[in-house]
Amino acid sequence: MFDEVDGYSVVGAGLEGGQRRFYVSCRHCGEYQILEWGGKDVTHGIKWDKDEQDNALSETAHYVCQHHGCVIEE
Q1: How many CB atoms are located within 10 Å of the residue 44 CB?
Q2: Do residues 50 and 56 make contact, with C-beta atoms less than 8 angstroms apart?
Q3: Residues facing 3 on adjacent strands
Q4: Is 50 helix (H, G, I), strand (E, B) or coil?
Q5: Pairing of strands 19-25, 71-72
């Protein structure tokens, strides 16, 4: 169910209620989690910095682990 991606990430897809979810292994702590966007009210997921005008700075995109807050920048 899980496949190696780029030699270090592990991604698996599962069907849950007809929805496809992707699970990734944190390369720092090894915990599996569902790959998801990190909204304003969520401490984990895909995050990025913003400039003074509240515009997203895409070059700062990173992923924050939901289990231990590890920051994955690749």
Answers
A1: 19
A2: yes
A3: 11
A4: strand
A5: unpaired
Residues 33-68 pLDDT 10s: 988 888 889 999 999 999 999 999 999 999 999 999
Q: CA-to-CA distance for 63 and 47, rounded, in angstroms?
A: 6
Q: Which residue shows structure tokens 């979810």? A: 21
Neighbour count for residue 12 (Cβ, 10 Å): 13
User: Of 52, 48, 45, which Cα lies nearest the Cα of 69?
Assistant: 45
CA distance linking residue 30 with residue 14, whole number of Å: 19
Alpha-carbon span 10 to 38, nearest angstrom: 20
Q: Where are the beta strands (DSSP E) in 1-74?
A: 2-5, 9-16, 19-25, 32-34, 45-50, 56-64, 71-72
* Tens digits of residue pLDDT in 14-42: 555 566 777 888 999 999 998 888 888 99
